[in-house]
Amino acid sequence: MDVVFLSRLQFAAATMFHFLFVPLTLGLSVLVAYMETKYVRTGDETYLRMTKFWGKLFLINFAIGVVTGITLEFQFGTNWSRYSEFVGDIFGSLLAIEATAAFFLESTLIGVWVFGWNRLSKRAHAIVMWLVAAAGNISAIWILTANGWMQHPVGYTIRNGRAELTDFSAVVFNKFSILEFFHMLPAAFILAAFFVMGISAYHLLKKQHVDLFTRSFKMALVFGLIFSIFIVIEGDMHGVHVTKTQPAKLAAMEAHWETTTRAPIHLFAIPDEENERNIIEIGTLPGLLSLLGYHDFDAEVKGLKDFPKDERPPVLITLIAFRGMVGLGTLFPLLMIIGLFKRNRLTESPLYLRVMLYAIPLPYIAIQLGWVLAEVGRQPWIVYGIMKTSDAASPIAVSQVFTSLIAFILVYGLLGAVAFYLIIKNARKGPE
Q1: First to last CA, the chain
Q2: Which segments of 273-399 are extended strands (E)?
Q3: 45 in a domain, yes or no?
Q4: Residue 68 lies in a domain
Q5: What residues have CB less than 8 Å from 356, skipping those under 6 apart?
Q6: Is the dihedral of CA 270, 276, 281, 283 positive or negative?
Q7: What is the domain extent for residue 160?
Q8: Is residue 285 included in any domain, yes or no?
């Protein structure tokens, strides 16, 4: 094990753990804001109880997300100093804007929301929650803009051995970043919908607070249905852009080795990267990879063999991540459509409620797979086409990174145990 591998492992562990909390914060903030708005408009106390119940779960989730996010960013200075030195002019400015213009605003507004009950008017208090939701999602814009630049760098020049910003608007309106945002945000909303529907299903199965959780379930159902359909459409657009900007990733996503027209997709494949072939190919569907990448059955798709070996992403991991993400992304709208037909007789549909209860982890898995696809599929580049990951790590001892990796695992493990204990405890307890 070398410094680069351990640094990558540490950053992956920290990022994936942090991202157990970020999507729920983004999606649940919008749902809580809508619930409180319904209370303000109708005066119905049930919506107030809904707001406070789901708001408590939101706050627990947000608190752990903040702690894990702050420590995550320190790694750019400790483990990836060469990367920070090379792209700090661009990447650093985006993170600074995210922190000062969005994160601090969101944190302040959350304090106002928590302590503003009975101090603000009902309407003002609801507006604060909408501002919390807006600030959180604006924060996501800047983070995804930074990541999108790493995936497809634009608006820069290499001067004195560093990437220097030349066109801020090109970075902000980078098509890759925009598509990434409109893929990630709906994914977060779907996760929040499943979270609310699953916990609501738990209480409906026990015939507890039936009216409140029926309303919660229906609200999340509509929310999730809209965005589960939207993400399928956006995912197709994203796939076409990846084909244009990262053709090696597309080839790895389907273990496609030979450049060919009418490139096929295999329903099941096991790649052999050493010998540049697939050991097993089952269920060949001619032309579908060409259609996925170019919207043309007869388009030519470049194979992995046409890329230098040291510029190919790990094929097996990329393939599994892509298949898993797409499979789950196809399942979500189907579950939502079934729920649409059962929405008026939920208590009479125990099997469906059990399915939705046990489905809570599925959007978490889908989002993690999506990030594995995005980041592993970009390798060996940390900034696509201009800086390799192997050149980005800090010149530090292996023992230092190994020690910090173990510390991260222990501390994050403890934080995770506390967070999930509190969320599960309060979710089972139900509203006051």
Answers
A1: 52
A2: 277-285, 300-301, 381-383, 387-388
A3: yes
A4: yes
A5: 194, 197, 198, 201, 335, 339
A6: positive
A7: 3-259+302-425
A8: no
| pLDDT of the chain, 432 residues: tens digit per residue | 788 888 888 888 888 888 888 899 999 999 999 999 999 999 888 999 999 999 999 998 888 887 777 777 777 778 888 888 888 888 888 888 887 777 778 888 888 998 988 888 889 999 999 999 998 888 888 888 988 988 999 988 888 888 888 888 898 899 999 999 899 999 999 999 999 999 999 999 988 888 899 999 999 999 999 999 999 888 888 888 888 889 999 888 888 888 888 888 888 888 878 777 888 778 788 888 888 888 888 888 888 888 888 888 998 999 999 999 999 999 999 999 999 888 888 888 889 999 999 999 999 999 999 999 999 989 899 999 888 988 888 888 888 888 888 888 888 888 888 888 998 999 888 887
Work out the burial of residue 16: count CB atoms within 10 Å of its CB; fewer than 13 is exposed, 13-18 middle, 19 or more buried. Answer: middle
Distances (CA, A) of 375 to 39, 162, 163, 417: 42, 22, 20, 27
Crossing angle of helices 122-151 and 104-115, in 10° steps, is 160
Is residue 291, in this structure, part of any structural domain at all?
A: no
> Tokens standing for 224?
């999730």
Cα separation, 245 vs 227, in Å, equals: 26
Q: Please answer whether residues 72 and 15 qualify as being in contact, where contact means their C-beta atoms are separated by less than 8 angstroms.
A: yes
> Encoding tokens for residue 201?
């299903």
Token duo for residue 349? 């549909």
Domain count, the chain: 1
Give CA torsion, residues 202, 203, 207, 213, to 10 deg.
Answer: -120
Q: 44 by DSSP, 3-state: which?
A: coil
- Closest residue by Cα to residue 14 from 314, 413, 402: 413
